[in-house]
Amino acid sequence: MAATVCGAATSAEANMTALNCISISDPDIQKSVSLLKQACLDSGFFYVINHGISEEFMNEVFFRSRKFFDLPLHKKMELLRNEKHRGYTPTLDETLDPENQVHGDFKEGYYIGVEVPEDDPDIEKPFYGPNQWPSEDILPGWRQIMEQYQKEALRVSREIAKIIALALDLDADFFDKPQMLGVPIATLRLLHYEGKVSNPASGIYGCGAHSDFGLITILATDDVAGLQICKDKDAKPRIWEYVAPLKGGFIVNLGDMLERLSNDVFRSTLHRVVLDGQERYSIAFFADPNHECLVECLPSCTSEMNPPKYPPITCAAYMCQRYNDTHLDLSSYVGQETRK
């Protein structure tokens, strides 16, 4: 079957990769499964279109995101991320490629998770708890917009997961189970890259090379290019290709947990952000399994000749380790913020 490709182009400055394009509303599910499977075997990245989120609403979410990042730094620091990873992450807070970065990522962000009240029995779990929200006096209606987007993004993630399940010879509703995306760790992250020129040769990046931690990520971006992927993480030297922004569509990639579940049939892919000095805004949504989910090889992805490559691990344990490895210790910020 011929691939449906979006965003393929060449640039005088760098390669633009061609990615398969999957329409969520296409009634030909086998076509979508074929395109997704090919994409997952090739690069682990693909575009999703016709996802049911209007362009007007997407524009509003980006507008509200910019309004937050335009606030004075001391106002943003009042919402500094807490131990549950909710709230503001300053520039250089995260270092995703410590072997090659001389500083942290030149980006600031804002984490929004599933809203869990203080009296909920799940409050003790990592990544669960009440979110931190900007004051209504400062950013009226901001919370409502972000919660609505989070709900829509989870819906789209579940639709994509159905196609992934079929591509792995599983039942379409496999990822709908409570331990998967039925009761997920679902995190929305607003991102703003400052206008600093990246210089990979000097270890300066908007975002260092990494693979995502969880199941799947759906990414909306503005029209500023910067995202690069490396299809073969073992290649020396690594070959990096730009992913073109796609107006109205999502860039979707697989995370480490799906790589582990599929026993490397589907691979999580290294990616980074390299910028030419332009500001860039993006909105990432990480759809990850439930805390108790045991991430282990799927029966459809193993055989006597192909035994499981990874030991089982719970989603919570894996996520905690990866966050601890990549974020500054909160004690680094003592005296720099007003904690809520």
UniProtKB/TrEMBL annotation:
Protein family membership: Belongs to the iron/ascorbate-dependent oxidoreductase family.
Top-rank taxon: Eukaryota
Gene3D superfamilies xref list: B-lactam Antibiotic, Isopenicillin N Synthase, Chain
Protein's UniProt keywords contain Magnesium: no
Database matches in InterPro entries: DIOX_N (IPR026992), IPNS-like_FE2OG_OXY (IPR044861), IPNS-like_sf (IPR027443), Oxoglu/Fe-dep_dioxygenase_dom (IPR005123)
SUPFAM superfamilies: Clavaminate synthase-like (SSF51197)
This protein's encoding gene: FLS1
Protein's recorded name: Flavonol synthase/flavanone 3-hydroxylase
Keyword Metal-binding applies: yes
